[in-house]
Automatic annotation (TrEMBL), chain A:
Protein name: Sugar ABC transporter permease
Assigned keywords, A-Z: Cell membrane, Membrane, Transmembrane, Transmembrane helix, Transport
Record-linked InterPro entries: MetI-like, MetI-like_sf
Keyword Transport part of the UniProt annotation: yes
From TrEMBL, chain B:
Organism: Terrabacter aerolatus
One Pfam family recorded for the sequence: BPD_transp_1
Protein name: Sugar ABC transporter permease
Subcellular location: Cell membrane
Any one GO CC term of the record: plasma membrane
First-listed, main subcellular location of the protein, grouped into a coarse class: membrane
GO biological process, one term: transmembrane transport
Length: 309, 327
């Protein structure tokens, strides 16, 4: 098993970590005051930019540009607050299309682009782990290599191909692109998890006469839930947060996603400028909720040593 | 709108249902074959759709891109090495290349060092405090680069002199009666590029911290103990005992961030769109492909990027093989 990273998707049966004893001032709970204060300062510094945007998103236009966000933060009762930035940007065309529509477009893009590759990748991972075939290892090594190849290599021909098929600007174009681009990582994560599953279980299923198809559905899929969840979170965040693929294959128009709409709003210098913070929060709220709720799986996926090109 | 949502639901259900049906049919097809052939064909039926997706969306386009890099603007005639000559003799592109090198030199190293620092310090807190501190540092990882760039306006924002400053940095300068600075437009010592790098680092340190923290917790206590018995100080223990043992993870983090940085696009595109000498390869590529419509030039840029990635690719494959052998 991987020697580099311990709690990864590759080690489903993780042995309990031996807790470090706090001796000589390095164990848990041994932090000195300078360490605590230092970390506190760092955490606060890390959150300041996001806090500033949150404050500004609720300030009326004239106040946003009459003083910095900290003025309202330190004097909350002497400042006026409003939710009109949110209501305006959600319903008006300031960002090209209403942010509410862009938000729904993001969901429309991200959900199928997350769910569909999982099954395809799971079948492939099963084949790479539990079936013997000629060329298997070579094909897998190619997939491992492709993990680091930038998606940009595919853009020029795909744009040409899509315009020939009239697919540019359609959801299908982005779905298929994300399925293709996400596939190496999906196969890699799922295979590395499956190869850590106890082989005895699979062997006994085989002896009992279960076909590969049955073994896959009844045994491997249920046992692989943690890895399936990690990949799902990864892919969802990746697709939701993506700007480049959406810009190239979906562009601006009725199908614009939230990141592209937010980017379009950045250029505003006059009216609409006060809407940027609100639009920002509308764009990042879903990933933040997903992340906070499913942090455990997200970390598990990361520590599997996977990288995405 | 309703139609769109309906379409998406159909896509999800149809995609999953369709995939199940396809795999079921492929499986039946394989089972209908006799004896050895069934065992030979079935693995391909299972892995086939994934391999097809990768072939259509990565391998085939990569080959065509290489081909296009030797062709003209609309990929209708070959022009030999003209695109490469154009790219590599273009002074502006060399500047872009240099900017990318700056990103590559600074961002991965700083991300690793900062992540390691937080991991080591947070390790000394009680579990509850450690978890909270880590969540704060880690949270920006979930945010898109567009979102992050928007968030950092609260720090970097610039208003003309004489008007109230809305960015933290300029407000700070104002305390000392200094003129406000248009940060994104200040390329003295590549200051603006550095400020953009901070945005990327802000989102990446959490990743580095989580991996390195897991590695540090995996260092066997008895090795540290042995160092102590031999009279090594904390610093010595950290650099001579802990660092060597977590080195493979340091490399993993470094490489992952490095790959991200080599194709960095979003943060530059959203903030300066490559102006004020902040341009990077991936943004230039987008510009050539989209704004200029020059397929050949764009393809040549990607091929250069691809060549730059090859050493990492070789490392990745070797690393994978070594891990497999250790299984």
């Amino acid at each position: 098993m991987t020697t580099t990273i311990q709690p990864g998707t590759g080690t489903p049966a993780e042995e309990p970590q031996i807790l470090k004893q706090s001796k000589m001032g390095t164990g848990a709970g041994s932090a000195t005051w300078p360490v605590r204060v230092g970390l506190l300062v760092l955490c606060v510094a890390w959150m300041i930019p996001a806090l500033g945007m949150l404050v500004n998103s609720f300030r009326p236009r004239d106040e946003q540009f009459a003083s910095g966000w900290w003025t309202a933060f330190f004097n909350p009762f002497g400042s006026s607050w409003t939710i009109s930035n949110y209501t305006t940007v959600l319903t008006s065309d300031s960002a090209g299309i209403p942010m509410s529509q862009a938000f729904i477009n993001s969901l429309i893009v991200a959900l199928p682009a997350t769910v569909i590759p999982i099954l395809i990748a799971a079948f492939a991972a099963y084949s790479f782990t539990f079936m013997q075939w000629k060329g298997r290892d070579v094909v897998f090594v190619i997939i491992v290599g492709l993990l680091v190849v930038p998606n940009q290599v595919a853009f020029v021909p795909l744009v040409k191909l899509y315009s020939g098929l009239g697919l540019n600007g359609t959801f299908i174009a982005v779905w298929l692109a994300h399925i293709g681009f996400g596939m190496p990582l999906a196969v890699y994560i799922l295979r590395s998890y499956m190869s850590g599953l106890p082989t005895a279980v699979i062997e006994s299923a085989k002896i009992d006469g279960a076909s590969h198809f049955t073994t896959f559905w009844r045994l491997i899929m249920p046992m692989s839930t943690p890895a399936l969840a990690s990949f799902a979170i990864f892919q969802f965040l990746w697709v939701w947060n993506d700007l480049l693929v959406a810009l190239i294959f979906l562009g601006r128009g009725d199908n614009t996603v939230a990141t592209v709409a937010l980017q379009g709003l950045q250029g505003q210098t006059g009216a609409g400028r006060e809407l940027i913070p609100a639009a920002g929060y509308i764009t990042i709220i879903v990933p933040i909720i997903v992340f906070l709720a499913l942090q455990r799986y997200f970390i598990r996926g990361m520590t599997s040593g996977a990288v995405k090109g | 709108m309703a139609i769109k949502i309906l379409n998406a639901v159909i896509a999800i259900l149809g995609g999953i249902g369709g995939a199940i049906i396809i795999f079921w049919i492929l499986n039946k097809l394989a089972e209908s074959l006799k004896g050895r052939w069934e065992d030979r064909v079935k693995p391909w039926m299972f892995a086939g759709p994934a391999i097809l997706a990768i072939a259509v969306y990565l391998i085939y386009p990569a080959i065509v891109t290489i081909q296009y890099s030797f062709a003209n603007e609309d990929s209708t005639a070959y022009v030999g090495f003209k695109n490469y000559v154009d790219v590599l003799t273009d002074k502006t592109f060399l500047q872009v290349l240099f900017n990318n090198v700056l990103w590559i030199v600074i961002v991965p190293a700083l991300t690793v060092v900062l992540g390691l620092g937080v991991a080591v310090l947070a390790d000394r807190l009680r579990p509850r405090g450690e978890k909270t501190a880590k969540t704060f540092i880690f949270l920006p990882m979930a945010i898109s680069m567009v979102g992050a760039a928007t968030i950092w306006r609260t720090i970097y924002d610039y208003q003309p002199q004489g008007t109230p400053q809305t960015g933290v940095l300029n407000a700070f300068l104002g305390l000392f009666n200094k003129d406000p600075v248009y940060w994104y437009g200040t390329d003295t010592l590549h200051l603006n590029s550095l400020l953009l790098m901070i945005i990327l680092i802000w989102t990446q340190v959490g990743y580095s911290m989580v991996l390195l923290s897991a590695a540090i917790k995996g260092v066997p206590e008895d090795t540290v103990e042995a160092g102590r018995i031999d009279g090594a100080g904390e610093r010595r223990i950290f650099f001579s005992i802990i660092i060597p043992q977590i080195w493979p993870t340091v490399i993993t983090v470094f490489i992952t961030v490095l790959i991200g940085v080599m194709k960095v696009f979003d943060v530059v595109y959203v903030t300066t769109n490559g102006a004020y000498n902040t341009d990077v390869i991936a943004r230039r590529f987008y510009d050539e492909l989209y704004t200029q419509g020059n397929n050949g030039y764009a393809a040549a840029i990607v091929v250069i990027l691809l060549i730059a990635v090859i050493p990492i690719l070789i490392y990745q494959v070797r690393h994978f093989r070594a891990e497999e052998a250790a299984r």
